Every structure is written in structure tokens, then in C-alpha cells.
Amino acid sequence: MTPSSDIATRMTETADRVTVALDQLLPRVQGPEQKLMSAMRYAALGGGKRLRPFLVLETGRIFGVDERALLRAAAAIECVHTYSLVHDDLPSMDNDDLRRGRPTVHRAYDEATAILAGDALLTLAFEILADPNTHPDANVRCQLVTRVAQASGARGMVGGQMMDMIGSELGDDIAAVTRLQRLKTGALISVSVEAGVMLGRAGEEAGTVLSSYAHDLGLLFQITDDILDVTGSEDEAGKAVGKDAEAGKATFVSLLGLEGAKERVRYLATQAQNHLAGLGPRATYLSQLVDMIAERRS
Amino acid sequence: MTPSSDIATRMTETADRVTVALDQLLPRVQGPEQKLMSAMRYAALGGGKRLRPFLVLETGRIFGVDERALLRAAAAIECVHTYSLVHDDLPSMDNDDLRRGRPTVHRAYDEATAILAGDALLTLAFEILADPNTHPDANVRCQLVTRVAQASGARGMVGGQMMDMIGSELGDDIAAVTRLQRLKTGALISVSVEAGVMLGRAGEEAGTVLSSYAHDLGLLFQITDDILDVTGSEDEAGKAVGKDAEAGKATFVSLLGLEGAKERVRYLATQAQNHLAGLGPRATYLSQLVDMIAERRS
């Protein structure tokens, strides 16, 4: 088996198990408010790469963390990610009709239901993290709540989306685009790796190299996203493409050029893998993930 | 001083201190995403009765809880309440232009900013609760996160708002309206009292009577809200009135009649105060609060 099919299989397996975990953690569809639960499930169980859960699981496995705990933390972070997609897709934000190859939540249901389903998914994430089943030590659970909240709030993901909304006022240099990415997608990718580190009570040294890895991986992911927005097809991406250029937004491609962006991808991929060197074969899948993202077509 | 001016003064003092606490806990207005912080502050610092914080503080005081801890928990719950108002006011939900006598957040800013400011306020609430400054014992902090999340999520406040949105399909009996109220406003009022109990590590007996008190108080608050929607003026309420009748929504007034609703208020007020009897003078302010709500005009 080639390394690339190896990681692809592993990612699919992980994605399936995270979906099962989410299915169990999401509220049942019942009661007069069942439209809400139905929309939450539509959003969270509708596929996706499950990149963030994969990072939680593979990082935690390095430190021998119990798989059930990892799946809970992974599901919680995926709830945060899913809520952010549901809200970002709304008419008053990015106004997208398609997500993961299906109608967005406000299209499949309605706008009010999409807002409420997003709110409930975000709330559920913290309920999952604070539950004793996620970790026997309440200090670790509080740490998870704190870091996930920081990564997703005004100084993290939501702040990044705000910057994205006011895009044209930000200036169009590489520092501004990098900061936006760092907040909008990087923070949650970083906290996914960090969750595995926290649950595994890994030492400071391992924490630092994995944090550097996550930093580069997040940037790598965003640059390839910008490249796909230019070169990809809507069918492959499962969402609208070409929107950044249309909106006149500064992206890594508009700033570095297509070749420059691809070069930056290669540079970051090498750097991300170098961070992992000290962890040896335990980090094989995290390393293969770098190649997979660098070469991704959707 | 009459009891009524006594409680009014105490509520104003508490509200001021909660506003100061919120001011310190909310992110500064800075960075390219500062519009977000500005909207969060506009929403959270714009007044309001601060009923939920008052409940956290007065309950916690019964058990001698450190005031700084109470203010943090109170501020967190007020963040949840504020976010719910910001989202409920949106055009796709209740479409309100006025809140606490000022333009709603989506009117003062824009819709996208209102959605994001709500998201960030909800996220901040959990960050505050999980912080060691809220309580030295991480188990208590996790319990707070869990219960606030449960009270605010799909099986609590957000579920109640969903029911409110699909109102006409719910049936118009008193059981349906009571269940909606229980979720939409009752759950967060109950968890405010519960937070004081949790922080004070109060015994089971005190917890049970205070939980019954909170249950009746929440219902009382909603019935008086329904009465004010019929009898109040927009000036006094600081928000639009008469909307429920206009929307054909079943309310306690439409189901019980104005006199029937007022009678229910008197009954609930007596019952709520009876729950407190065993706590003696320590619960004076919680008791006076019942009268204040029963007689409120805004």
C-alpha cells in the first residue's frame, strides 16, 4: 500500500468513527422543537473531511490516550467547526448555497433554524468537553473548555470571520492575510492538536513541536484552499469556488501568484514534517497528513 | 425605606457591579476585527435589569460565596442571555428594531456583525466559567459549564426559541405555552440560581427549595412579560410591545385572560415565597424580588 492510500484509508476510518460518535452525542430528533435537532444533525452528520477530529485522534494516540476520550473531544471540536460553517454560509455572511455537496442548512431548512442550529452546536461542544467521560480530571476538562473557547471566540475563529467580512478594509499584504487565516482557520486546527496533547498530558517539549506543526499545517491548509478556489471545480470541492477572486479578496494566490503559493506549500510541508522528526514513527500519520493536504484536490 | 425601594436599590447596585465586571471581561476594542468587539460591548453593556446576575449573586451570598467569583459567574450567564437577545432580535427571527430602548445590534451595526457578536458572547461565557478565578475547584467549574450549556442549548433556551419560531404549529394549550417558557426563559433563570448553589456548595435541601423557587420565579417572570406585552407601553418596556397578539401567538394572557393571568401571578408569587421560608432572613432579597417582578411595569 502506498503511503498516500494508507493515510486516506486511515482518515476515512477516523471520519466514520467520529460520525458515529457525533450521532450518539447529538440530541435525538424529538419534541415540538425537533426541527432544530434535525438541522443540527443535517449539519454535523453530512460528511466532511473531519480534519480536526483526525488531528485530535492522531495526536492523542501518540501519547496513548483512551480512544473514547479522544472521540469525544474530536466530536466537540467538530461541532464548533460545523457551527462556524453553518453561520458563515448564511445570506448575511458568505451567502453560500452549497456545502459538502449538499444545500447549506439555511437552504435545506430556513435562516432562523440555521442560526439556532449553529448556536446549539456551539453550546453542545462545551457540554461534551466538560463531561467527566471526556477526561477523569476536571482540570484537564476545564483546560479543554478554556482553550477551545479561546480558539473559537472573538480573539480566534469568530474574530477571523469578522476580518473576512470586512475584507477590503484590511489592506492586502501577506501579514494581514496570514493573520486572518491564523484566526479564522488556524486557531481551531491548532487547538485540535493541542487537545490531543492536553488529554495525553504530554511533556512541554512534545507540546511545543506539535504546536509548531499545527501552526504550519493550518497555514498549509489555507494556502491549498486558496489554490483550489482558483484551480478547483465546484464538483470536487463540494462548494462554490472562485468566490474570493470574484469578491476581490486578497488571498495567498492573489498576493504570491499561483506558482508562489505552490512554492510556499512545498516549503511549509517540509517544515511541518521537520517538526515531527523527534517524535519518530509514532507521528507517521501526522506526517503523511502533511503530504495529503499539500497534494489535495478538494 | 420601603421593602420595594430597598430591593430596587439593591438591584441597581448589583446591575452596576455586573456591568463593571462585564466591562473587564469583554475583549478590548482593538485590531482589524474591532467592529466585533465594539458590537459585543454595545450588546452587553447597554443596560438591562440584570435579573439573572442578581439571582446568581443573591443566591451565592446566602452561602457566603466570594463576591468576585459570583460576579464572574453572573457575567458569564449575562453573556449567554445577551447573546440570545442579539440572535432572537435578528430579521430572520423576531425582527426587532429596539432593545433596552436602543437600536438592536443588527440595526446599530449589521446582520453579520450581530450574528458574530452573539457567537462570541456565547463562547466567552464558557471561557469565563472554566477559568480558575471563577472557582478554585475545577469540578465546580466543569459543573457550571455543564449546567449552563444544558440550560442554553437544544434542550434549553435555543430549543425554546425554536418552539417560539414555529409557534402556531405547537397547539395553544397551557401545557405547550408553559413548556415553551420553561425552555426559552425558565432554564437560564433556574441555572442562575443553581450557579449560586453550586458555587456555595450548598446542601441538597437548600438546593431543592431554591430550585423550586427559581422554577416559579421563571414562570412568574414570563406571565408578567405576557401581561406587559398587552398592557405596557413601548417607552416603559424599551422594546416593541403587542407583538405576540399581532403574531397570533398563544400566551398566558390569550389562554387565561388578563384577569386569569394576574391571578396566576399572585398564586405563583405566594408559592415562590413559601419555598424560601426555611432559609429565613438570608433570603430576604430573593423574597423581595418576587414582589418586584409581580408588580413590575417594564
Features:
homodimer; 298 residues; mainly alpha; Farnesyl Diphosphate Synthase; two-stranded antiparallel sheet
Helix content of chain A: over 70%
Oligomer: homodimer
The pair of chains with the biggest contact is: A-B, 58 and 58 residues
| Mean of all residue-level pLDDT scores of chain A | 93
> How do the SSEs of chain A run, as a string of H and E?
HHHHEEHHHHHHHHHH
Give the uncertain stretches of chain A in residue-range form.
none
Instruction: Look up the CATH topology of chain A.
Output: Farnesyl Diphosphate Synthase
Biggest sheet features of chain A: 2 strands, antiparallel
Total number of domains of chain A = 1
CATH superfamily of chain A: Farnesyl Diphosphate Synthase
Number of H/I helices of chain A: 14
Total beta-strand segments of chain A: 2
- Looking at the overall shape, the CATH architecture of chain A is Orthogonal Bundle
**Span between termini of chain A:** 22 Å
Structural class of chain A: mainly alpha
User: In angstroms, what is the radius of gyration of chain A?
Assistant: 18 Å
CATH classification class of chain A? Mainly Alpha
